[in-house]
Amino acid sequence: MHPSKYAFDIPREFNMEHCNLAKTPSETSMKLEKDGNEEDVKATMYGGIVGSLRYLCRKRPDLAFSVGLISRYMENPKVSHLLATKRIMRYVKGTLNCRVLFPTKKDDKNVRTILSKKECKDADWRGDKDDSKSTTGYCFF
Predict the structure, then answer these.
(1) Which residues of 51-83 are buried (b: 16+ CB within 10 A; e: fewer)?
(2) pLDDT at position 26, please?
(3) pLDDT at res. 57
(4) pLDDT 10s digits, 121-131
(5) Of 7, 34, 86, 105, which residue has the fewest beta carbons closer than 10 angstroms?
(6) CB 74 within 8 A of CB 50
(7) Would you say residue 126 lies in a domain?
(8) Can you give the residue range of the structural domain that contains 42?
(9) Chain centroid to CA 34: how far?
(10) Averaged over 35-61, what is the pLDDT?
(11) Distances (CA, A) of 16 to 8, 9, 41, 57
(12) How far is the C-alpha of 74 from the C-alpha of 2, rounded, in Å?
C-alpha cells in the first residue's frame, strides 16, 4: 500500500510544504481539553484539515488514532488542537515514501516476518480530561 497523490497535496493545500518533519503522528503524552484557556481557531479551517486527514486514513491506518483524537474538537477548536493537527501533517509529509509491503510468494522469506505472532496492548485509564473516558490500544505483528 502506498499513499496516494492526495497525501502529497495535503501539506501544500494548507501552506505547510516547507515545514519540519515529524517521526510520529502525535506526542505520546498529549492531553487535549475541550475548554482550555486558549484562543479559538477558525472552525472551518480546522474542519478542512481534519476532513482531509480523515479521508487519508483510508490508505494510512497509522494516522487513525491521532486523527480520531483531533476529530473530537471540531465544534470549538483551540490553538493546542491546531498544533496537534499540524503535527500530524508534518508526519504525513515526512512519511510520504513509506510503504507497507505484502509478499506475493509463499516461498518468500519475508512471509515469516509478517506472519509472526507478536502482540502489544496498552490502556489509558480515565485519560481524557473532559469526560474521564479511557483509551485502549493494541496492535498485532
Answers:
(1) ebbeebbeebeebeebbebbbebeeebbebbbe
(2) 86
(3) 85
(4) 666 766 676 77
(5) 105
(6) yes
(7) no
(8) 5-104
(9) 19
(10) 88
(11) 11, 10, 17, 19
(12) 28
**127 within some domain:** no
21 grid coordinates: 518533519
Cell representation of residue 98: 513509506
Locate cell 473530537: which residue? Answer: 72
Distance CA 52, CA 10 (A): 7
Cell of 19: 515545514
Number of domains present in the structure of the chain? 1
Q: Which residue has the cell 505483528?
A: 141
Output the pLDDT for position 138: 65
What does pTM read for this prediction? 0.72
The residue count of the chain comes to: 141
User: Does 68 fall in a domain?
Assistant: yes
Q: Is 135 helix (H, G, I), strand (E, B) or coil?
A: strand
> Does any domain span residue 115?
no
**Residue 73: what residue type?**
Y
The pLDDT tens digits of the residues spanning 73-113 come to: 888 899 999 999 999 999 998 888 876 666 666 655 554 44
Q: List the beta bridge partners of residue 135.
A: 124
